[in-house]
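Table 4 source record.
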Amino acid sequence: MFLSTFEKQLDSKRRIVVPQEFRALAVAPFGGVFCFPSIEADCIEGGGKPLFDQYKALIEDLPLGDPLRLPLETVVYGGMHEFGFDTAGRITLPESLCDAFGLSDWVALVGLGDRFQIWEREAFRAHRSEQRQLAREGLPALRLQQRAQRLGGGG
């Protein structure tokens, strides 16, 4: 699983050192990671071949002509980049992705289990604060729902 948060600095060539913990999980056939603009947030989403396969299966489950299929294909396939690691464990982000998400100096690489995200550092700090508040508000309701299901109340 991709776990933890790492703050890293982009160099002048837009290269970033991918944490060893993330590189070990990215067992894509080419020895790197897949990245594309996130659908859920203003950041880059990435992972190994299992993440690519998840999105591929999700898209292929939609019939041609489904109104969601083309938007997913456009964002995921059309925005996807394959990055191999150099000898220092770095990937070079394309200028277009850096410009789209304001990545110019410090970034945060955030593990999310089966995937990771690359954020502009200050944008992630604000996002993390918002997510913490949502988790605080949602956890009590989730616990009640789970308790009701265990007791046979169904929810």
